[in-house]
Amino acid sequence: MLLKACHLSLLFLVGASFGANASDDFMWGVANSAFQVEGNPGASDWTRWTKTQGKIHDASNADRATDFWNRYEEDFDMAATLGVESFRISVAWERIEPAPGRWDEDALDHYEKMIEAMRKRGLEPIVTLHHFVLPTWIADRGGLEFKEFPRYFTRYALKVVSRLSARPARVKWWMTFNESMGQVAAGYLSPLWPPGVFDTTRATQAAANLIRAHIYSTLALRNLKGGQGLRIGLAHNWRPFYAASKFSLADRVIAGQAESIYNKNYLDSVSTGKIKVGFPGARAVREKIKIPKDVKLLDYVGINYYGRYMIQMIFKSPFVRLFEGPGPKTDMGWEIFPQGLYPVLKKAYARYKLPILISENGIADEKDSRRTDFIEKHVREIHRARSEGVPVIGYLYWSLTDNFEWAEGLKPRFGLVEIDYKTQARLPRPSFYAFSKLLRSRPQGKMSSHNAQN
Ligand code: IFM
To answer: Tens of pLDDT along 129-164?
Structure first.
């Protein structure tokens, strides 16, 4: 009964808010990333990391992953059956440029075919250029801290975008970077991800370079023929910080500071060209890159939303404690906190006045007992923000299938579709059908107006 009630309310939201009117402007989709699904990865920092003992919790690796490289048609068929109209992938820098300046045209051909296969099924491609993984040759020169990183990234971005934004692929929706601040925190403020150091000065340099790389590459992409027509954004993992105790001034102050460092300063920098970045204990980077008046650094903001952090001031080093809130947890141990999404959307729109794409939202839930409810509750928050004028332009579920979850390995199950890693069989979970039913209840024959090509 409860399930039926939930279903009806989501049906209402899907129909009433995101598709019932003629000017439908909402993209439903799913997202994945190259390293996590493709299999047989190129030479990268992550390939090496997965082969280093003790780095991956379940001792698995991404050597086979879901074999998306070969099975993408099967997955696009499933996405089409699901009823979504967009599919976010990433392209692997280490495949496309395995050595500096050496371009693997076969890899680009393969991505082109992949995108054509999407288009054949009515799926709008959204392509991320960098999703955590660095070619070994960049990693060995200093990775994100390498002085030339922004320049090399820009050259790579130009190569990929000129090829894939042209016919036949005609990709219009691009994301330069995925979760840069998350990547820096996991690699430079924790031992979990490469390079696995704790050094706030290096973290600051890495973050500044990622920001520069977004700015330089976007400026260059705008100069491509048709560059003004591209929709360029990035995905930021906006996890709001909540004071552990509302009654503690120290907790409230530290929550405000964390919010500035992690969310506000980052998005301010990538959207304006005025870089301001600095982790505690490090000398901050402040830099102003001149942006021509008519050039936009972001056409939209991608927000990956997975929950919040609780933050508390403590009186011994490192003086701050981050922890999960008290609500129910996903298999990752993350608190399920849909109510945090609405304030994030309101804040993001008030500050940046840009359309917002929910570029990821998902749950590790092996039993699939909470996924449908999780999606419903998050969509409800989006609906609330939209009904108050926040232009949320899409929702991408992470992920269509299970995949390689970085330091956690293959164990966490984020998929609407289960992967049997022994046989690579794809087995849709009940949440797949529930989500599909809702999506299919939309009026027929619609595609988002954002998808109209040239
Ligand atoms: O799997 C990741 C993805 O690569 C980036 N965003 C969060 C997901 C779940 O942890």
So the answer is: 999 999 999 999 999 999 999 999 999 999 999 999
Q: Which of 57, 89, 183, 304 to mutate to test the pocket of ligand 1 (most atoms within 8 A of CB)?
A: 304
Tokens of 297: 């650094």
In the chain, the amino acid numbered 391 is P
Largest CA distance in the chain: 60
3-class DSSP assignment, residue 51: coil
CA separation, residue 86 to residues 126, 158, 364, 441 (Å): 7, 23, 21, 17
Kindly give the number of the ligand 1 atom that is closest to the alpha carbon of 414. 9
d(C-alpha 313, C-alpha 171), whole Å: 46
Contact 27, 392 (CB under 8 A): no
406 Cα nearest atom in ligand 1: 1
Contact 400, 75 (CB under 8 A): yes
Task: Give the span between the Cα atoms of 22 and 445, in whole angstroms.
Answer: 11
CA 270 – ligand 1 centroid, Å: 21
Query: What b/e readout covers 419-435, taking b as 16+ CB neighbours within 10 angstroms?
Result: beeeebebebbebbebb
pLDDT digits (tens, 9 = 90+) for 12-37: 455 444 443 323 589 999 999 999 99
Across the strands, what pairs with 173?
126, 231
Q: Is 70 helix (H, G, I), strand (E, B) or coil?
A: helix
Q: Rounded to the nearest whole angstrom, what is the distance from the C-alpha of residue 413 to the centroid of ligand 1?
A: 11
CA distances from 65 to 69, 88, 179, 236 (A): 10, 17, 21, 24
Summarised one tens digit per residue, pLDDT across range 312-326 is 999 998 899 999 999
61 token code pair:
């690796």
Please tell me the residue having the least CA distance from ligand 1 atom 10: 405
Peptide bond into 195 cis (omega under 30): yes
d(CA 144, CA 162) in angstroms, rounded, equals 24
CB 275 within 8 A of CB 216: no
In 36-187, the DSSP E strands lie at 86-90, 124-130, 173-178
Tokens of 372: 């449908």
Gap from CA of 405 to ligand 1 centroid (Å): 7
Question: Distance between CA 254 and CA 257 in Å, rounded?
Answer: 5
Q: What angle do CA 304, 310, 316 make, to 5 degrees?
A: 130
Q: At a CB cut-off of 8 Å and minimum separation 6, what does 330 contact?
A: 336, 363, 364, 365, 370
**Where does residue 200 rank: exposed (0-12), middle (13-18), buried (19+ CB within 10 A)?**
middle
Task: Please state, in angstroms and rounded to a whole number, the distance separating the CA atoms of residues 333 and 325.
Answer: 10
In sequence order, what are the residues at sequence separation of 6 or more whose Cβ sits closer than 8 angstroms to the Cβ of residue 100?
137, 152
